[in-house]
Write a structure and sequence with these properties.
Oligomer: single chain
Radius of gyration: 18 Å
Number of helices: 10
Strand content: 25-35%
CATH superfamily: Ribokinase
Shape: globular
CATH architecture: 3-Layer(aba) Sandwich
Length: about 300
């Protein structure tokens, strides 16, 4: 079995929930590394950050799987969850411009000797993984999986809003599977369309599948091959803990399940349960493959 490549920045996060402030490591590459490690899959995490913050890398589950890309700064985020709905949050960021370049890609692949099953792109900001870098990755004929959120974030000072991406079609033409949440889907699609219709229209850009997560209301998986949208229910958590990184967890779990299943509904259910398990933890996904499957049997 080969390995996955995770690509994107790690972040220094401040979480505000129930008027309590905590500090943690964040970023898609971090939360996805927790999933792949827990599920026993091989991966490399190519991570951008400042050398002065290199101690953050000790928080990753397997330090031997990290390929640091040192830049002049580290991304910082403040996530303020103002009620019990994990979809409701205010965000702020220092928004540094620390792109992963074509030269960085060349250095990364010089350190990967085996088969690569797929590349998971986890940008937090529009400048993290430029279009020319994604184009370079597409030349390697390796499946590319994208969490779109970072490309849609626009800044007014430190405040973040979601805006349509001018290069969206060029980007999606290079991607195999797209992941986004409901707000992001409304930002790039027609707000009057159903989420299933938005997913279908996005898939016309050559996407194999489009997945839209909707927090406690579950998710939608649109399959181009089956020409059908599947509604996936969200599983009720045993307890509510930290909602940060749920979409990243879902993405990594969905792609992991695809190694053994071509059923979009099966992959969606597995990813939904993995994200519920993450919601129950303050340390990211911290279980294994058998635990997810046993929880699915119970539910």
């Amino acid at each position: 079995m080969g390995e996955f490549l995770l690509l994107g920045p790690v972040s220094k996060d401040t979480i505000i929930r129930r008027n309590q402030k905590t500090h943690s490591v964040g970023g898609a590459v971090y939360y996805q590394s927790k999933v792949l490690n827990g599920l026993g899959l091989n991966y490399k995490a190519a991570v951008t950050l400042s050398v002065k913050d290199k101690d953050i890398l000790n928080r990753f589950p397997d330090k031997n799987s990290i390929l640091p890309i040192f830049k002049e700064d580290t991304v910082k985020f403040e996530n303020n969850y103002y009620d019990e709905n994990p979809n409701h949050r205010f965000q702020r960021s220092n928004a540094p411009r620390i792109p992963i370049t074509k030269e960085d890609i060349s250095n990364i692949f010089s350190k990967i000797t085996g088969k690569c099953n797929g590349i998971l792109l986890g940008p937090l900001l529009p400048s993290d993984i430029p279009l020319e870098t994604v184009l370079e990755l597409s030349k390697k004929n390796i499946p590319i999986y994208l969490g779109l959120q970072g490309y849609l974030r626009q800044f007014d000072g430190c405040e973040i809003s979601l805006e349509p991406l001018s290069e969206i079609k060029k980007l999606l033409n290079l991607v195999d599977i797209l992941f986004l949440d409901e707000k992001e889907a409304r930002a790039v699609g027609n707000p009057e369309d159903t989420l299933s219709e938005i997913a279908r229209k996005l898939s016309i850009n050559g996407l194999e599948e489009v997945i839209i997560t909707c927090g406690s209301r579950g998710s939608i998986v649109y399959s181009s091959e089956k020409r059908k949208a599947f509604k996936i229910n969200q599983y009720a958590p045993i307890k509510l803990n930290d909602p940060t990184g749920l979409g990243d967890t879902y993405m990594a779990a969905f792609i992991s399940r695809k190694l053994m299943s071509n059923d979009p509904q099966d992959c969606g259910k597995f990813a939904s349960m993995a994200s519920t398990i993450k919601l129950e933890s303050s340390n990211g996904f911290d279980k294994n493959w058998n635990y997810v499957e046993k929880r699915l049997e119970i539910d």
